Amino acid sequence: MKKHWYDYLWIFSAVYLLLGFFNILFAWIGLLCFFIPLIISIAGGGKGYCNRYCGRGQLFSLLGGRFGLSRKKDPPKFLRSKWFRYGFLLFFFTMFFQMLWNTWLVFEEVHGLRQIVTVLWTFKLPWHWAYHGTAVAPWAAQFAFGFYSVMLTSTILGMITMVLFKPRSWCVYCPMGTMTQLICKAKSGRDVSVSQTQGQNIGRI
Ligand code: SF4
Q: Would you kindly state where each structural domain of the chain is located, as residue ranges?
């Protein structure tokens, strides 16, 4: 099958994660993965981002599929259920707004910059080596630490579900996937079921 440029976007995802170990400010680039899927869906492109351009989904396919790092078992039913997907989306947004709030507190100089990366919303890892001074305002650096925490946490969760279940099982409850699914549903006025959209991602391998 002929390869397209977008089939290699997994490289972008891998490099993005690596760059965060060297300079945390690169975390800002991750906003592209946040806005592009929404823009594509709102513009009528449906699940085009998930199906073509998502480097993270490709990375899971590659590691779990070609590199055999997945048990390739069906994910449990609860993972596909609406309450879990919407519940996780809500939880994700709560954590996201908490991160924005922390950024605001640094902007307002209520407290200083915290050079940590929080993994799985719990484990605070020192990450000072990836911040090199005063090139940007402290709030911009705080946002980078927070956003990288979000990206790293979701990647770790995705890796765990990749190993335990099918390579792209993360796609079943990925907040971006759930949001684009909701947009598709709102635009078409009918239910775009998980088996038609996110579900098809895990069925590829
Ligand atoms: S569901 Fe999430 S990880 Fe999966 S392809 Fe879509 S945006 Fe990427």
A: 5-185
